[in-house]
From TrEMBL:
Name of the molecule in the record: ABC transporter ATP-binding protein
Domain of life: Bacteria
Pfam families cross-referenced by the UniProt entry: ABC_tran (PF00005), TOBE_2 (PF08402)
Keyword ATP-binding in annotation: yes
Keywords: ATP-binding, Nucleotide-binding
Native species: Cryobacterium luteum
A GO MF term: ATP binding
């Protein structure tokens, strides 16, 4: 019966700290088993939403339901959620195994049973051989995995993760992203994942809520958020966008309003390389930035605006021209996103 209920339902959720409204009338349903991310700039209310769901904060108004049960007034231990914080918060004096078994001990699980379950949880994060070590004898990524095992061993319905990969270097971070996704899929737990790294949110999530000033400004799949941003804020915050204001839109698109186009949708050509595109504009190559698999081309258009384009590095065609070269940029109408419709005249 509970299968039809959302894992989490927030209704009119609001949290004020004095004059600061950290969370402002948030309505949200998260499905069981969903990998859900909250993405937004610093101070946009992401951690506060997590703390409200976990029960570490009381809302100023609004309600929180877990699988159809209103838990707004329940204590943290009386909610079927568990939290992984950015700093892991492992007990330094306990072994890895005892750290993982801790939540089971608190719940009164007998010693042998909890050690077995803790070992199984360590296996799921590929740390089976590390049970007897102390946290100080582990790498950052290994500690992170211990924190995950500790949070999942009690089999919560919902796992809240607040920037759990924030302290890791890029390589480890990418590796952990894959492991997190696998863990979530295998355990079937609902993940609510907070990050301000848009790439991470796009890679991992089933759906993303983009936060700004305590509100959800867009809710959708990664593809929807990336390809159809609903506002200039989302277009600029998630990935790199070229945003055309009203007068630039008039000049380049022949209509007013505010529009955006992603750099990978902008092609660039020189005089002797024809461009197949619905619309073109001429300009000067201002910067050529090598970024590994691709090159970023920054073009100052004669129309007075600057656009960023991405060229894959199998071609090396325009980048080889170097700064100052005359170029033509182009894009297709279907790749233009309307952020604000033209004003009615
Ligand atoms: N205990 C508190 N007392 C007063 N203000 C608070 C408190 N906790 C959070 N705030 C304020 O609420 C707003 C939202 O904070 P929150 O920590 O939820 O942001 P965040 O989106 O998690 O940011 P970050 O990405 O920096 O972690 C901020 O303006 C913050 O200063
Ligand atoms: Mg935060």
């Amino acid at each position: 019966m509970t299968g039809a209920q959302p894992a989490i339902r927030l209704t009119g959720l609001t949290k004020s700290f004095g004059s600061v409204t950290a969370v402002d009338e948030v309505d949200l349903d998260i499905a069981p088993g969903e990998f859900f991310s909250m993405l937004g700039p610093s101070g946009s209310g992401k951690t506060t939403v997590l703390r409200l769901i976990a029960g570490f904060e009381q809302p100023t108004s609004g309600t929180i339901s877990l699988l159809g049960r209103d838990v707004t007034d329940r204590a943290p231990f009386d909610r079927d959620v568990n939290t992984v914080f950015q700093d892991y918060a492992l007990f330094p004096h306990m072994s890895v195994l005892d750290n993982v078994a801790y939540g089971l001990r608190v719940r009164g699980v007998a010693k042998r049973a909890r050690q077995e379950q803790a070992r199984a949880a360590l296996d799921t994060v590929r740390l089976g051989g590390f049970a007897d070590r102390k946290p100080s004898q582990l790498s950052g990524g290994q500690r992170q995995r211990v924190a995950l095992a500790r949070a999942t061993v009690v089999q919560p319905k919902v796992l809240l993760l607040d920037e759990p990969l924030g302290a890791l270097d890029l390589k480890l971070r990418e590796q952990m992203q894959v492991e997190l996704k696998e863990l979530q899929r295998n355990l079937g737990i609902t993940f609510i994942f907070v990050t301000h790294d848009q790439q991470e949110a796009l890679t991992l999530s089933d759906r993303i809520a983009v936060f700004n000033d305590g509100r959800i400004v867009q809710l959708g799949t990664p593809a929807e958020i990336y390809e159809r941003p609903a506002s200039s804020f989302v277009a600029a915050f998630v990935g790199t966008s070229n945003i055309f204001d009203d007068s630039t839109s008039q000049a380049l698109l022949g209509r007013g309003g505010v529009h955006s186009v992603r750099p990978e949708k902008v092609s660039v050509a020189t005089e002797n390389l024809p461009l197949v595109a619905d619309r073109t504009a001429a300009g000067v190559l201002a910067e050529v930035i090598y970024v590994g698999s691709s090159t970023q081309l920054i073009v100052d258009l004669d129309a007075g605006t600057r656009v960023v384009a991405l060229e894959q590095n199998d071609a090396h065609r325009v980048a080889s021209k170097g700064r100052g070269a005359r170029v033509t940029v182009g894009w297709n109408d279907s790749d233009i996103v309307t952020l604000t419709a033209p004003a009615l005249t």
